[in-house]
From TrEMBL:
The lineage of its organism: Bacteria, Pseudomonadati, Pseudomonadota, Gammaproteobacteria, Pseudomonadales. Keywords: DNA-binding, Transcription, Transcription regulation. This is DNA-binding transcriptional LysR family regulator. Belongs to the LysR transcriptional regulatory family. Gene3D superfamilies: 3.40.190.290, Winged helix-like DNA-binding domain superfamily/Winged helix DNA-binding domain (1.10.10.10).
Amino acid sequence: MATLEHYRAFVATIEAGSLTAAAGRLGCSLQTVSRSLACLEEELGCELIRRTTRRLRPTPAGTLFYDRLKVALGAIDEARSEVLRGAAEIFGLLRVGASRHFAARFVVPAVTAFLAAYPETEVDLVLADERADLLAENLDVVIRIGDPLSMSLRGRPLVQLRRVLVATPAYLNRHGRPTVPADLAAHVCVVRTTGPERDLWPLTCQGRSLQVPVSGRLRCNEAAAANAAVVQGAGIGLAPLWQVRTELDQGLLELVLADYEPPPLPVQALWREHPTPTRIRAFVDLLQQRLAGERL
C-alpha cells in the first residue's frame, strides 16, 4: 500500500525534474525514490511519469494526480504545523483546584497525562474538601461538583455524576428491602454531615423531586469513611456511583430504591481568565475526554 513517503517522492520528482534531484531534496537515496514511484504506479495501475533517456515528464494521469496530491500534502503539512505550534504555546504553571477524593481518582490521571503531553508545563494541584476559591487560592481552574455554572466565571460542563442508594445484602436480608422512599423512615441510614443533603435525601419519583428525611446512629463528615461504614453493614448510604461501583460489582453492596434514584450531580471546570489561555483549554479538553470514558 502506498504511503505518505511514496506520495512525497512523486511530488518531489515532478517538481525537481529528476529522480536524483528528488532524492537530494528528500534526503534519501535514488533507489528509495525509484522504488516509491514504482510502488505507487503499481498500486494505481497506470503510468504516472514517462521516463526517457534525457528527462522525466508526467503523463496526463500523473499531472492530474500531482495537482490533487500537492493540495492534499500542503493541507497535511499545515495541519501538522498548527498542532506543533499549538503544543509549543502550552507552557508554564497551571494551578488546579479540586476535591480530594474525586481528584485522586480522576483529576490526577488527567494531570499526569497533561504533563506528559506538554513537557514545558508544571501543575500545582490544590486539593481540599471545602469549595475552592479561585481568587483566594490564586487558581487557574477549579473542578467543582454540584455547583451550577457561575455567571461571573468562565466554565464548561464536564460530566454528570450518577448517585445511588446502597446497602449490604446482609443488612437488607436482616431489615428488609425498601420499596418506596417512605420506607426509609424505618431503616438505619449512614448520614453524611457535609454537603447540602445531610439528613434530607433527594430522590425522584416519576420526574418529581422528593426530599426524604433519613436518620441513623452513625453520622460522618467524610465520604470514604461513610462508604466504608455502609460496606461494614452500618445501614443504607447515599453516594456517587463512582465511589461505590467496585463494591457493587463485587456484590458487597446492592442498589436500594433504584427506581427513585437521586438526580445526578454536575461536574464543571471553572476559570476566570478571558480569552481562555491555551494551557487551560488544553487541560480541560483532556480532562473532559478522560471523564467521558469513565463509568460515572
